[in-house]
Amino acid sequence: MRQHFLLLFLAVAILQSCTKDLGTIDVTYTKATAIYGDLETVRNTPLIDAPKEIDNPGKIFVSNDFLLIGEEEKGIHLIDNSDPENPTPIHFINVPGNREFYVVNNTVYAESYYDLVKIDLTNLQQPVLSNRLRNAFGEEIKNDKGETLIGFNFERVTESMKPNHPVRQQRWGQQETYYYDYLQNLIPPSAVPASFAGSSGGAIGSVNRIAKVDNYVYVVSRSKLNTFKDNGALELIASDDVFQTMETIFPDGDRLFIGTRNSMEIFSIENREQPQQMGNFFHGTACDPVYPDGDVAYLTLRTGDFSDCPGDVNALHVLDVTDIQFPNQIQEITMASPYGLSLIGDRLYVGEGRNGIKIFDATDRRNLTLEKSDESVEAYDIIRHPNRTDLILIAGTDGLKQYKVEGGDLSLMSQLLY
Amino acid sequence: MRILLSTLFALCLCAGQTFAQVKMPPKTIIFYQDGSVFLGEIIDENSQEISLIISTLDTIRVNKNFIRRIRRTPKDIIMHTNGKYHYTKGMFGGLEYGYGLSANYTVQFDVIAGIHLDSKYAVGIGTGIHSYTSVFQSPDNNNFNWITNNFFPLYAYGRYTPWNKRWRPYFDVKVGYGSPIQSWWDNNDRKGGLLFQPGVGLKFASRNNFRFKISLSQAVQRAVGTSFRWDNLGNEVQFDYRLWQNRTMLKIGIEFR
To answer: B247 vs A19: CB contact, 8 Å cut-off?
Structure first.
């Protein structure tokens, strides 16, 4: 009998020791490797270069006579567009680290790593760096050699892990912290694959991260709303942690409309130096350019499996924003993959990416009706010309195209291919 | 954990040494209102009293006015001196709830139906819901990550009960297949696999048709699949796993008949 209990005891002891899983877990993820450099050298890069090929286009700005097309993390292509049928490159403006810029009255506000720079384009042949606010978005992060963190290389890697892996001490140490600090404070890569509209008087794009109202410049990073004062020289007024996933900012009178991945937030800027949150409209996780027009706002929600905007919502929402504290949805239109949008006259143009472009009759701003759908035009953002209502620019993955608008029909005038 | 195992072991030891089986299986149990229990075989019965032969082979007469309950037991039981018994024949059903003792979270809920083949062996089939969570450290965030797999198992059940004690130690085993339960809220791909779960336990005699039991077992469940999540910057992180989920389970249960 005692032998039986000895066996029982051994069985229990063996069971107790076998609590670990066996096998492997292959983890495929985006690995970040820090890039360090001499920031002063970067800052002293000559402003103007000869025209270059558009390789990795970013933001687009349309003015009366010229176009600006961002080259991701490198600078801005300056193009003479006085003849829309024959756009001609003038310069390449070096703005290292730049992804986002905003233009008001021939002045470009652009990020450059930690700095916010101001470029005067009054003389298109001779752009001038008129001001640089150093460390506008955060203090420099340096390594042991005194070099400054100026970015990350991202690569897709697969590592095989054992289950029950013991907890390791921070394998990347401080670098991992840098990864988050740096990218939370600075303007992150766009969640869209191609270009998006910049700004022009009365015709700003719907997916900016920089906006200017009077003498104040507002910049949203991933989690911060930064307020700058521009009295010739730039001055940081406030840097507030607001939300974690801010995507866009759009000024409308005394209001700022901020699109996050889960909501549209409305801030009052009656006091320009202290934006106050007034209301919001929550929606599912999505990339959501917002385009306010008077008492209504148009909001596109775009998601896709395994995209930067995961989820299952693709829609155009029409919101009543008469009461700023309680935005109210008055219409929802199912879309395929809505990106940017623009209201030109009584027509709302919505880019659907590879699914083309949809044109809505917006005579009644609160009740849109689909007028036309054209799947032959790849459209990620729709940019209205500041003065010509018969001309729109459409950004796709292969280039920027200018169309003449006749009724609801589009006819191609010219294209700048990437 | 060690205290628990030591306690369980001590219980097994006590069961083996303290509670002896009644040699002559009685046929009837009479519960008196004062708490007394009489075990024996009824040889005579009228409106006033019952005569029965008890284990000492003496004949006693019991006044029916003082009887609270009479249980005329079937033949196939193992009766113990306090009137508690185990069944050794017939069908049985059982419910089990188990909780994992390892760092990885595990929960099992089982329903088992079977038959007692004799006083030592029982077989059956079982099903239920098993949930396994594997915790590991992912290189993308250097932090804890977890993969959860829920299964709908279907298995054969066998039990060997070597000793006829009031607290009967037993060895059992479940062998079958765990089918994965896909989640509607994610795109994860899950595949099931072999389930093998040997164990040891104690089943407690009772005066009713149900018995409590407690056991320790080792659950080994194959799990293969792919799961996804998003890192803080919106990049996709993919986990392809091929695991033998290996968990020590503490289970409590109740068995009917």
So the answer is: yes
